[in-house]
Write a structure and sequence with these properties.
lipid metabolism; 2 domains; 11 helices; Short-chain dehydrogenase/reductase 3; alpha/beta; oxidoreductase; seven-stranded parallel beta sheet; transmembrane; all-trans-retinol dehydrogenase (NADP+) activity; globular
């Protein structure tokens, strides 16, 4: 271990921290407003270049944040003066697919602490001490099992008000190495499951004219990478799924109060991706930091609290992913090379979501790039 890796300060230092600080200082209209005021108090005239310069800058960033704010307000039919009433968590019934491990497990247990009724759908049981988490064994890639589970949930618990489609699987194989069973599992769990659960639970939301559907996609659904053809394609489908669902709810079902949130994270330090090979250099970790599960969970809960339809990109660099396709080919290839996206899966070993015919996961070798 190098002397740099032993410092907790350096471990938490990344571009996301800088972006957060800058958004509250150099790019904050409230903060920037006081800079020309300070110069005026020091004797500067209103016609001085420094005052005019900061004044123009203040107007520019104010317009930028106003457009951001009004765009979300418009999308969610919000009021210019009044925000939505606080979320009554005690009245919510939350269904989480793939809630037995990773993001889903942490999300289920975190919501349960808020006295939320949580329902977990998974092929494996969730290990928890929270009494208000109910587990139903269900292969969400199969419509028959989802339909049966939905019927039981409605009879025993009630109509879900929030659906979090979190279940996912990754094969980590080159295209020619993928078997039909691999491809069917990938699209069944990552894509078709969203159709089945939404078909099962959306009718009651439409009847009540409110609800929230969270679609967990991936940055790999926006940009492709080698050895992830099936995964990238399955996650790309969810981006279009979320957008189309939003327009159906707004214009065909006339239920704009049913919110939709799309989550596009980068690499998350969960068991599913624990054998991904990531660079260990400080610069790479600074620019492309892997996500801690708690970061994603906090952001999802915040989105539910806000009661707004939105798209979430984590960490900071993923905000630029929708624009990568617009780059010239040589810059696009440079971005792929810098992020090492085409080689991250080289030594990948599938750990979670293994089918019976695949047997147990082989013993994992010590990997210096593996997250703690």
């Amino acid at each position: 271990m190098s002397r740099y890796e032993s410092s907790l300060v350096f471990d938490s230092l990344d571009i996301d921290l800088f972006a957060k600080v800058l958004s509250h200082t150099a790019f904050s209209p409230f903060f920037v407003f006081f800079i020309p005021v300070f110069y005026v108090f020091q004797g500067a005239k209103l016609t001085d270049p420094v005052i005019i310069g900061f004044g123009v800058y203040y107007v520019v960033i104010s317009i930028f944040w106003f457009v951001q704010w009004y765009s979300r307000l418009y999308r969610n039919q919000g009021s210019l003066l009044f925000g939505p009433s606080p979320m009554d968590w005690g009245e919510q019934i939350v269904v989480i697919t793939g809630g037995a491990s990773g993001i889903g497990e942490l999300l289920a247990n975190t919501l349960a602490v808020r006295n939320v009724t949580v329902v977990v759908l998974d092929v494996n049981p969730i290990v928890t001490e929270n009494y208000n988490i109910t587990y139903y064994k269900c292969d969400v890639s199969k419509w028959e099992e989802v339909e049966a589970a939905a019927k039981t949930i409605r009879e025993e618990i009630g109509d879900p008000t929030i659906l979090i489609n979190n279940a996912g699987v990754v094969q980590g194989k080159l295209l020619l190495d993928l078997t039909p069973e691999d491809v069917n599992q990938t699209f069944g769990v990552n894509t078709l499951a969203h159709f089945w659960t939404t078909k099962a639970f959306l009718p009651s939301m439409i009847e009540n004219k409110q609800g929230h559907i969270v679609t967990i996609s991936s940055v790999m659904g926006i940009v492709g990478a080698a050895q992830m053809t099936d995964y990238c394609a399955s996650k790309a489908a969810l981006v279009s799924f979320n957008e189309s669902l939003r327009y159906e709810l707004d214009h065909r079902y006339n239920c704009p109060k049913i919110r939709t949130t799309l989550v596009c994270p980068g690499v998350i330090q969960t068991p599913m991706f624990q054998t991904v090979k990531l660079p260990s250099s400080f610069l790479w970790k600074f620019l492309f930091p892997p996500l801690q599960p708690v970061t994603v969970v906090k952001r999802i809960i915040a989105a539910l609290d806000e009661q707004h339809s939105q798209s979430i990109y984590l960490p900071f660099y993923t905000n630029f992913s929708p624009y990568v396709a617009l780059l010239p080919s040589f810059l696009r290839d440079f971005a792929q090379r810098v992020t090492t996206a085409n080689y991250a899966m080289t030594d990948f070993v599938k750990v979670s979501g293994r089918r019976s015919e695949e047997g147990p996961a082989p013993p994992l070798q010590n990997n210096s790039n593996k997250s703690d």
